[in-house]
């Protein structure tokens, strides 16, 4: 087990920011963890997803499933039903990153799903098998959080691992673990639209700086005792919806 761990927050298709953060990663002595949500909203989801897969296969990185990996897979499996929600959550950018500019307007949801599934079989199989959490020393890394009402946190449902918010943020942490999570941008945790810093409370650490919304993406280095370094890369632009459901 590595004595240092480097965890990167929600990327959301911001490939250039992803690359900047990876410059501080040293595979010789750090375990890399990607907290999930590599896709949607940002323009370069394809590159982010393929790089995430490569890091797992070549560098033994841990890539946790996020709620956006989940809604992408659900869209592929049930495109007509899931399409409006996926577009609402920034899926149009992922579709056009994987296919081509104009694909959202050109094809039906079923055609989009068929094209993606035929061209990216290995990637889709990889995403379906992503883990929901990772344990390291006294740390637990998870995309959204856990159900703190469970006697055993491992009994948390998959939906809660991927989607939980307020109940986890406000619940009492009785797990004897420091829980590191993404999913909910700092501005919501602090109730301050200008805040991007790490949120720390009751042995919970929120690392989503809201990068795709014009905030930041964090790369946080941990040792078994705590945070060693927080690397914060700021975005120069904010995502705005540009696709409509049809």
Automatic annotation (TrEMBL):
GO terms for biological process: RNA decapping. SUPFAM superfamilies: Metallo-dependent phosphatases. It comes from the Bacteria. Signal peptide: none annotated. GO terms for cellular component: cytoplasm. Residues 6-198 form the Calcineurin-like phosphoesterase domain. It holds the Pfam family Metallophos. One of its GO terms (molecular function) is bis(5'-nucleosyl)-tetraphosphatase (symmetrical) activity. This is Serine/threonine protein phosphatase. It comes from Vagococcus fluvialis. The lineage of its organism: Bacteria, Bacillati, Bacillota, Bacilli, Lactobacillales.
């Amino acid at each position: 087990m590595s004595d240092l761990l480097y965890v990167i927050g929600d990327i959301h298709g911001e490939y250039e920011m992803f690359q900047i953060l990876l410059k501080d990663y040293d595979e010789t002595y750090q375990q890399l963890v990607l907290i999930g949500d590599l896709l949607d909203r940002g323009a370069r989801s394809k590159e982010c997803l393929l790089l995430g897969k490569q890091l797992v296969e070549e560098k033994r990185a841990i890539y946790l499933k996020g709620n956006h990996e989940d809604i992408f897979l659900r869209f592929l499996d049930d495109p007509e039903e899931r399409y409006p929600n996926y577009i609402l959550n920034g899926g149009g950018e992922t579709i056009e990153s994987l296919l081509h500019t104009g694909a959202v307007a050109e094809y039906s949801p079923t055609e989009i799903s068929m094209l993606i599934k035929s061209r990216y079989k290995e990637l889709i199989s990889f995403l379906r098998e992503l883990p929901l959490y990772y344990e390291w020393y006294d740390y637990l890394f998870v995309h959204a959080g856990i159900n703190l009402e469970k006697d055993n946190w491992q009994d948390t449902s998959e939906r809660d691992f991927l989607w939980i918010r307020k109940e986890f943020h406000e619940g009492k942490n009785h797990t004897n673990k420091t829980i590191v999570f993404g999913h909910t941008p700092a501005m919501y945790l602090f109730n301050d639209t200008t805040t991007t810093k790490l949120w720390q409370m009751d042995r919970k650490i929120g690392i989503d700086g809201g990068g795709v919304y014009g905030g930041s993406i964090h790369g946080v280095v941990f040792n078994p005792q705590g945070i060693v370094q927080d690397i914060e890369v700021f975005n120069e632009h904010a995502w705005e919806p540009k696709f409509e459901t049809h």
